[in-house]
Design goal:
The complex is a heterodimer of chains A (240) and B (300). Chain A is an alpha/beta fold and 240 residues long. Chain A is built from ten helices and ten strands. The relative contact order of chain A is 0.17. A two-stranded antiparallel ribbon of chain B has the order 1-4. In chain B, helix 1 runs antiparallel to helix 10 and helix 2 runs parallel beside helix 4. Chain B starts with a helix and ends in a 14-residue tail after the last helix. The chains are: A alpha/beta (240), B mainly alpha (300).
Chain lengths: 240, 300
């Protein structure tokens, strides 16, 4: 259901940590309905990019336009109400809150969290339904990741940002997580995905950007990147 | 046995005061990881504000229930306003600064409030009127409960149950707990962390204000530096219960009050303070995170 309407547009973004530039002028676009993935090695600046988009970090230059609003200077909590939701690296579920309370917090910006979204989340992530009353900190890593994703879509976002959803998970769980992401995307949510697992991410995504030390070095459709020899050597572990 | 029950009642009364004040310390610590050293002085300030409102508005007229409710509400509002002001001026500018800076700022704010009280009300002891609550005392087979004690116990219990329900059963309360666990994750949920901090200061200051008024009504003598003494005891209560834990502050306050009363009753009043610290040391050795505190493992 991809159309040509731009949902997120980033221009010449620069971000630094105390004088050291982590992002050195990147531009990227996400269209409505797409799954876009950002690939890159450790320290390339993927998480920094996502945190700047969602307002946790402030940029030193450049603009971020989301759904026709300039959000470059917006606070993180205001950006959520505009329809962006960010599931952070390392899951960051609220450990001493129950699964249900975690999901409730995901819907914090809504007046009432609607039963339908909750049912839908329980439908695509059935493990959460079984664990509804359990304290989130006692869940397994995979279940916590499911909770983090479920929590992020409780606000019924237009754009879902996922940072390393497969990190540290067993292959069978990664499969379940990616299946859930696909279903979320099919329901009309645009997805921006950062992944170490480049192959799985490219199979899922429509388009991809490759980030290397703060700069975008490649971009294209997922298929193009899957077939590109440089990408294969650097990220997919194939030798030619 | 009579002494025991009498000291139990006295201990629970004093313990309720400690608990009300301890809640302010623990809530601020829970969300901001900051010891609000000025909290005790806010409590002292509330006793003075309450006294002024009592004497200005009602003089020697008999105090009716409505008047008492008005005085308590007005005082809470004034002190809550001071608490919010304190956070804006002394803590918010240092939110991202090293923790030690915020601690120094807290100590400074404490001195400012303390000296402010001295400038407004003078350095001499002020005496709370004794006729705020009826002087009725009930006698249950030798155990005495005064009207004042009854009001303190009942209202404190009511406030603590209300706070517990607010924190655990409401959306804002859940957001407060979420913010205490992980501020950045809370922001990503759309929670305005500054607003949560403001709510914490309002609620904590209001509970402290009620505590301060009760201290005035119960002990009656007010000095400008009394915030240190009551603040320290309440702070110890928060540590005993596990700082950052709301049920912990309630439990710690009540336990410390009971412990003090028993030492006073069976050993000597002079030794109560000493034993307070002995208790604190023992608890810190046995359970460093406090009775209900969580042992947080360092993230690797």
């Amino acid at each position: 259901m991809v159309n040509n309407e731009v949902l997120l547009s980033i221009k010449d973004l620069e971000v630094g940590y105390g004088g050291i530039a982590a992002i050195k002028g990147i531009s990227l676009k996400v269209l409505k309905g797409e799954i876009v993935t950002i690939l890159g090695a450790n320290g390339a600046g993927k998480t920094t990019t996502l945190q700047t988009i969602s307002g946790l970090l402030k940029s030193s230059a450049g603009t971020i336009i989301f759904d026709k609003n300039d959000i470059t200077k917006c606070e993180a909590h205001d950006i959520v109400s505009l329809g962006m939701s960010h599931s952070p690296e390392g899951r960051r579920v609220f450990g001493t809150l129950s699964v249900e309370e975690n999901l409730m917090m995901g819907a914090y910006t809504l007046k009432n969290h609607d039963k339908e979204t909750l049912e839908w989340i329980y439908d695509i992530l059935p493990r959460l339904k079984e664990r509804e009353k359990q304290i989130a900190g006692t869940l397994s890593g995979g279940e916590q990741q499911m909770l983090a994703i479920g929590r992020a879509i409780m606000s019924k976002p237009k754009l879902l940002i996922l940072d390393e959803p497969s990190l540290g998970l067993a292959p069978i769980l990664i499969k379940a997580i990616f299946k859930a992401i696909k279903e979320i995307s099919l329901s009309g949510v645009t997805v921006l995905l950062v992944e170490q697992n480049a192959k799985a991410a490219l199979k899922l995504a429509d388009r991809a950007y490759v980030l290397e030390v703060g700069k975008i070095t490649h971009e294209g459709t997922a298929e193009e990147l899957l077939n590109s020899t440089t990408i294969q050597e650097a990220y997919l572990g194939k030798k030619h | 046995m009579e002494t025991f029950i009498q000291q139990l009642i006295n201990g629970l009364t004093v313990g309720s005061l400690y608990a009300l004040v301890a809640l302010g310390y623990t809530m601020v610590y829970g969300v901001m990881k900051l010891i609000n050293f000025a909290h005790g002085d806010l409590v002292a300030f509330s006793a003075y504000v309450g006294l002024t409102i009592f004497t200005q508005f009602y003089g020697s007229n008999a105090l009716t229930l409505v008047n008492i409710v008005i005085v308590f509400s007005l005082t809470s509002i004034v002190v809550a306003f001071m608490g919010v002001l304190l956070e804006r001026l002394a803590y918010r500018p240092l939110r991202t600064a090293p923790r030690l800076s915020a601690v120094v700022s807290a100590l400074g704010a404490s001195l400012v409030i303390q000296n402010g009280i001295m400038l407004i009300w003078g350095p001499n002891m002020e005496i709370f009127p004794s006729d705020i609550f009826p002087s009725t005392t009930w006698n249950f087979g030798g155990v005495l409960i005064s009207y004042t004690q009854f009001v303190i116990l009942a209202l404190s219990a009511f406030l603590m149950v209300s706070l517990y329900l607010f924190i655990n059963k409401t959306k804002i309360g859940t957001a407060i707990r979420a913010t205490a666990i992980d501020q950045d994750a809370a922001k990503l949920m759309g929670i305005n962390v500054n607003r949560i901090v403001m709510i914490i200061f309002i609620v904590g200051s209001m509970l402290g204000a009620i505590g301060g008024l009760f201290i005035g009504v119960y002990y009656r003598g007010l000095t400008f530096d009394m915030g240190w003494m009551y603040g320290l005891n309440a702070f110890i209560a928060a540590i005993i219960g596990g700082i950052g834990s709301i049920p912990g502050a309630m439990l710690g306050g009540l336990l410390l009050g009971l412990f003090n009363a028993m030492i006073s009753g069976y050993i000597s009043t002079e030794w109560a303070e000493t034993f307070t610290f002995i208790l604190l040391i023992i608890i810190l050795i046995v359970r460093p995170a406090g009775l209900l505190g969580h042992n947080v493992a360092e993230k690797v």
